[in-house]
Fold:
Amino acid sequence: MKIGMNQTWNQHVVKKGNKSLVLDVIKQHSPISRATIASQTGLNKGTVSSLVSDLLNEELIYESGPGESSGGRRPVMLLYNNTAGHAIGIDLGVNYLRGIRTDLNGAISEEQVVHFYDLTYEAIQKKLFLMIDALIANAPSSPYGIIGIGVGVPGTVDKRGKVLLAPNLNWENINLQSIIEKKYQCPVVVQNEANAGAYGEKKFGAGVHHQNIVYVSVAMGIGVGLILNGSLYKGHEGFSGELGHMTITANGDTCRCGGKGCWELYASEQALIQQAASLDMGVSDNAEHTLENLLDRAEQGNKQAIALFKQIGTSLGIGLSNIINAFNPELVVIGNRLSMAQKWIEPALHESIANQTLWFQQNHLNITFSKLTTHSTALGVAAFTIENFLTGSIQK
Structure:
C-alpha cells in the first residue's frame, strides 16, 4: 500500500514537472507544433499530447492554423495565451506610487503614477487602493482575470509579506500582504523593492543574459538586489539587500534607520535635494528642489547643479566599490529615479569605482544604467505574481 502511494505521488510530481516543461517550451518558442515540443523536451508524443490537452483545457495555450510542413500533413501550431490573465505590479516609493497592469508575458497594458510628500501609512494605503481599483476596473476580460497583485516596498520585508521596517516611510510592522489580500481576495506578493527591481532586470531588462548581477535602486533611499548564479539572493530570513544602510562614513550623519554614516545619506535623491537646499541656487522655496528641476538646471549649464550630480556620482561609486569587491559581479545595473541623471553622474561614478575597486575585480565588469529605468520594481513584482500563478496552475 505504501509503495503504491509513493508511486502515485511520484507520478504526480513527474507530471507536474513535465507539464511545466511543456508550457515553458511553448512560451519560449510559440508558435510550435506538438512534434517539435516532443523533440525539444525528449518526451514521447503521447505524453506531450496529453499535457497539451490539459493546457488547452486550462486556456493557458491555444491552437492556431497549420504551420509549415516538413512533408505530409501540415501541423497545428500551439501558442502561449499571454492574455489569459493580468497581473498588477506596484512600486511603492517614498514619495510616489507607480502601478502597472501586465499580461502573462509582463507586457505593460496600463500604467498609473501618483506623487506625494510625507504622508501617513493610512493616506498612502488609500492612494494604493485607489490605484489598484483603477487598474482592475480597466482590465479587459480574460479567462482568469486579475491573477494577483505584487507590491515592492523600500524596506525590510519578511517571508510572509510583512514590512518589518521601512525607515524612509516611517513604517514598522505593517502586515501589508494580508491587508491587500483581505481587500482584494486574490494572491498578493510583497517584496523589497530592490530585490524586485533586480528580478525585473533579470527577466526583462539589462540582466537577461547575465548570471551575477548587482541592481542598485537609487531614489530617496538606496536598495540593492543581488542575482547570484542566476537566482535572486534573499538571505536566510529574506532580509538581504539593505546595503543602502552600510556605513561609508564612521562618524557621519544620523540615518532614519538609527545608524550613522549610511550610504544613502550621501548618494541618493534625498542627499541630492538636501545638498541643493543648503546652497544658494536662486530658489526661494526648498520644495522646488526636485530631481527633475536639478536636471533642468544642469542641462542649462548651472555649475552648482552639475557639481552636485558629480558629488552624488562619486559617493555612489564609493559604496558600489565595496559591493563589487565583496560579490565580484559581471553586471552592475543602476536603476530607479536617479538613473534619469546618468549623463551627469556616470563620469564621476566610473572614476570613483576605478579608484576604489581592486583592479582584478574590474576585469569583465559591465556597469550600466537600467533599460527599464523606473519600471524595474513594478515589472519584478508582476513577474513574481505571474510565476506564482503559473506554478499554481501547473500543480492543480
Notes: The chain has three domains: 2-80, 86-198+377-395, 208-371. The radius of gyration is 24 Å.
